[in-house]
Design goal:
Mean pLDDT: 96
Order of helices and strands: EHEHEHEHEHHHHHHHHHHHHHH
CATH topology of the largest domain: DNA Cyclobutane Dipyrimidine Photolyase, subunit A, domain 3
Largest sheet: 5 strands, parallel
Structural class: alpha/beta
CATH class of the largest domain: Mainly Alpha
Helix content: 40-55%
CATH superfamily of the largest domain: DNA Cyclobutane Dipyrimidine Photolyase, subunit A, domain 3
Low-confidence stretches: none
Number of strands: 5
Number of domains: 3
Number of helices: 18
Bound molecules: flavin-adenine dinucleotide
Distance between the termini: 78 Å
Strand order of the largest sheet: 3-2-1-4-5
């Protein structure tokens, strides 16, 4: 009997999974493995909210595999060792996985060189970073030509159906509970009201968005309106693939919603662009992509002000609403992420890496590409970034995008009452300081 091993990582699904499809085609038995690798230096340790998501996602995946006759094998340890051990234990003659694009691909290359018949597949991105380059043969640094180049190519392939059966292999597995992924303090108790981790939850989100959100997507910048898909954590953990999303949207596109659908697909494009950046800069969460920012005069973090930002008690209502939404649900509306990040970086003057790390710990969609790329976009240190001197005014942003305060009052009910605090910092003074710091970085004389 031939046995194949499928090693799942950021592709926690059975439908449209090219690695699983290929393994089932070539072997009579298929073992499915997930490795919790918190030892290899190439893997960025998961944040607390991501661990919560992973716990529930693995539980859903395990159920989907056992319903098809298979078993999800859970093991913990450095992947180079653990995967080789499992291959030997079950006598696998081939191994399949979906490619990843950050520093962890060094692990995959090492395993590919030593394992029998190892195959990598593309299950995570519509484009692979080496498949698109500028006319000059260099990586794209600007989104619009990147996306134009992608759209000029072949349309995305059709998704693969979920297999009916996964003839499995019995092998010892850790218990999910023994991994202690759930938080030790009950800070996550509101997460289940917002989220259903797992493949079925991702598909339900897509269906709901197609039925209700797509027609409203031109209002995606208004945090008080449910106009966006909420698909980001499902995409992050690969519970739904970009191919499934793409075709789901295309099938629902009509003359009326065409502009909204095009815009939505371009946001999927931003996810692709973030991975393009990660592939070419695997240290993107640590290093300014524009090196002139290496000399930026960041302020030493004031614990009281940084704490107020994290807790949502800065006295700036849109920032506070976003930071509280983040803490209570593990997500934050995109427009508010931009404003909260800009406030930390530019008004408070704190290095973007400190904010990025907080989001990494608290977002359920914390993504090794999109999170640092977006923080660098706000800071001005990234590719195709907002210029540093464009400092969002959170009060004007609130007036424009949350005019009746629906969103702010949902998360900050005391807003507008005497108990709501005064701003921790003057917006106009801090804006002036930010612009002066920028001038210092550029080595220009201040007026
Ligand atoms: C400071 C900051 C940090 C961010 N960190 C993350 C992160 O860790 N993970 C993450 O997935 N997104 C991140 N984003 C991008 C964006 O805020 C989220 O993808 C979006 O809010 C998710 O909500 P949604 O699924 O309803 O989005 P929708 O508007 O429904 O968009 C559909 C999908 O497109 C992708 N997408 C949308 N906007 C972007 C974007 N600007 N960059 C990359 N992909 C995008 C996401 O996969 C999203 O699910 C960040 C943005 C900022 C400003």
């Amino acid at each position: 009997m031939t046995t194949a091993l499928v090693w799942l990582r950021d592709d926690l699904r059975v439908a449209d999974n090219p690695a699983l499809t290929a393994a089932l085609k070539t072997a009579e038995r298929v073992a499915v493995l997930y490795v919790l690798d918190d030892e290899s230096p190439e893997i960025r340790p998961l944040g607390a909210a991501s661990k919560w998501w992973l716990h529930h996602s693995l539980r859903a995946l395990s159920r989907a595999i056992s319903e098809r006759g298979g078993q999800l094998i859970l093991r913990r340890g450095p992947a180079r060792r653990v995967v080789a051990e499992v291959v030997a234990e079950i006598g696998a003659t081939s191994v399949h996985w979906s490619r990843r694009f950050g520093a962890a691909r060094a692990i995959d290359s090492d395993l590919k060189a030593t394992l029998p018949d190892a195959h990598s597949h593309n299950g995570t991105l519509l484009h692979e970073p080496w498949s698109l380059q500028t006319g000059g043969g260099t990586p794209f640094k600007v989104f619009t030509p990147f996306w134009k180049a992608y759209r000029a190519g072949d349309p995305p392939r059709d998704p693969f159906p979920a297999p009916d059966a996964i003839p499995g292999v019995e092998a010892p597995s850790d218990s999910l509970e023994s991994w202690d992924l759930l938080p030790s303090i009950p800070w996550d108790h509101e997460f289940p009201d917002t989220w259903s981790p797992g493949e079925a939850g991702g598909q339900a989100r897509l269906d709901r968005f197609v039925a209700h959100g797509l027609a409203l997507y031109h209002r995606r910048d208004e945090p008080g309106v449910e106009a966006t898909s909420g698909l980001s954590p499902h995409l992050r953990f690969g519970e739904i693939s970009p191919y499934q999303v793409w075709h789901g949207i295309e099938a629902a596109t009509t003359a009326e919603n065409h502009a909204n659908a095009t815009r939505f697909l371009s946001e999927i494009g931003w996810r692709e662009f973030s991975y393009h950046q990660l592939f070419h800069n695997t240290d993107i969460h640590e290093r300014n992509l524009r090196s002139e920012f290496d000399g930026f005069p960041w302020s030493p973090p004031d614990p009281a002000i940084l704490g107020a930002w994290r807790r949502g008690t800065t006295g700036i209502s849109l920032v506070d609403a976003g930071m509280r939404e983040l803490w209570r649900t593990g997500t934050m509306h995109n427009r508010v992420r931009m404003v909260a990040a800009s406030f930390l970086i530019k008004n408070i003057g704190i290095d973007w890496r400190i904010g990025e790390a907080w989001f990494w710990d608290t977002l359920v969609d914390a993504d090794e590409a999109s999170n640092p790329a977006s923080w660098q976009w706000v800071a001005g240190s990234g590719y195709d970034a907002a210029p540093y001197f464009r400092v969002f005014n959170p009060e004007l942003q609130a007036a424009k995008f949350d005019p009746d305060a629906t969103y702010r009052l949902r998360w900050v009910p005391e807003f507008g009452t005497p108990v709501y605090p005064e701003p921790v910092i003057s917006l106009s003074d801090s804006r002036a300081r930010a612009l002066a710091d920028y001038t210092t970085m550029r080595g220009e004389r201040q007026p």
